[in-house]
Amino acid sequence: MSTVLLVSQLLNGLQLGLVLFLVAAGLTLVFGVMDFINLAHGVQYMLGAYLVAMCVGFTGHFGLGLLLGLIGALVLGIVLEWLVFRHLTRRDHLEQVLGTFGVILVVTEGVRMIFGTAPLAMPMPVALSGSVTLFPGLNYPVWRLVIIAVGLAVAGLLWFLVHRTRLGMLVRAGSTHPGIVSALGVNIDRLFLFVFAFGAMLAGLAGAMAGPLVSVEPTMGDNVLIIAFVVVVIGGIGSIKGAFVGALAVGLVDTLGRAFAVDLLRLVMDRSAAATAGPALSSMLIYVLMALVLGLRPSGLFGPKKA
Fold first, then answer.
1. Distance from first CA to last CA of the chain, Å, rounded?
2. CA 13, CA 260: separation in Å to the nearest integer?
3. Cα-trace Rg, the chain
4. For the whole model, what pTM was predicted?
5. How far apart are the C-alpha atoms of 201 and 154, rounded to whole Å?
6. CA quadruple 9, 246, 188, 39: dihedral positive or negative?
7. Any stretches that span the bilayer, and where are they (predicted)?
8. What whole-number distance in Å separates Cα of residue 57 and Cα of residue 40?
């Protein structure tokens, strides 16, 4: 195992983890604050990628296209909350699952009708399309470093908003005592609308960041949603800190497992058996991690403590 390969895979795992954090942060806010299971969060990730790709193509400028696309993701989040989700907020979880699954079907088919099934290319900025030499022998893509920087910046911004602002105080209070917060004159529905729309914009930002690296297509949010739920469960429902730690853990475990599982298995079994078992094992590692965390802390690493 070379140092160049190890550092490269560590950075890839960090980059994947921070993309997952952008998705999981909005998911855990909606789940923790509103007690709402939103299966359509992956659709918002997909819509963000499409909106940014479309706006970049229309304006010819990545920065302006990104800004317009994120505003569009925010507006779509508000529209979906107003049309669909607010009517499911006070329903039981089964109705929320069925309702949001219906949103997945409708929105996905709508995107197919508008854009077709062929993947849509999202060009990255020319200035950020090259590589930078981190140390001799390791040239790392600039765009992946940008994703890492954006993810860390958003994590710091979320920490500040949640723990150092009045709005964050209301969000934390509304997640545990919505009745009392409402009695104090706070419009809970408007607070929930803000949380949902902000979560949709974060998912859209994740889609925009991942867009130049993956295929922008109608089902791109499906696998991301599953892994984001794993992140939320590991970190603890409603915890931004938990989403951050859980996302980094999942990103690193998944990336390093896929890169080195076969080589590690060759130490204890023959080459052909390792080649067969390695990919299967690496695809299960994040779920093994989730099972281990739940065995030790059923509410997640930073979830609410049970009395």
1. 47
2. 13
3. 20
4. 0.91
5. 12
6. positive
7. 12-31, 43-60, 66-85, 97-122, 142-162, 191-214, 226-253, 274-296
8. 26
d(CA 10, CA 29): 28
The highest-confidence range among 18-22, 87-91, 258-262, by mean pLDDT, is: 18-22
Top CATH class, 3-296: mainly alpha
Residue type, 43: V
* Amino acid at site 23: V
**What does the domain layout of the chain look like in residue ranges?**
3-296
By the 8 A CB rule, do 73 and 200 touch?
Answer: yes
Most confident of 29-38, 190-199, 291-300: 291-300
Taking each helix axis as running N to C, give the angle between helix 240-265 and helix 271-296, from 0 to 180 degrees, rounded to the nearest 10.
Answer: 160
C-alpha span between 19 and 262 (Å, rounded): 26
Amino acid at the residue 47: L
Alpha helices in 35-92 (DSSP H): 41-59, 62-83
- The residues facing 138 across adjacent strands are 135
- CA distances 300 to 55, 239, 304, Å, are 39, 9, 8
Give the containing element (helix H, strand E) for 140.
strand 138-141
The identity of residue 182, as a single letter, is: S
Q: Hey, what are 233's tokens?
A: 């469960």
Predicted local confidence at residue 307, as pLDDT? 42
Give the range among 99-103, 162-166, 201-205 with minimum mean pLDDT.
162-166
Amino acid (1-letter code) at residue 151: G
The single residue listed with the structure tokens 């009392």 is 180
Q: Is the pLDDT of residue 173 over 80?
A: no
Host H or E run for residue 134: strand 131-135
The torsion angles phi and psi of 248, rounded to 5 degrees, stand at -65, -40
Q: What's at 204, amino acid-wise?
A: G
In whole angstroms, give the CA distance from residue 271 to residue 258.
16
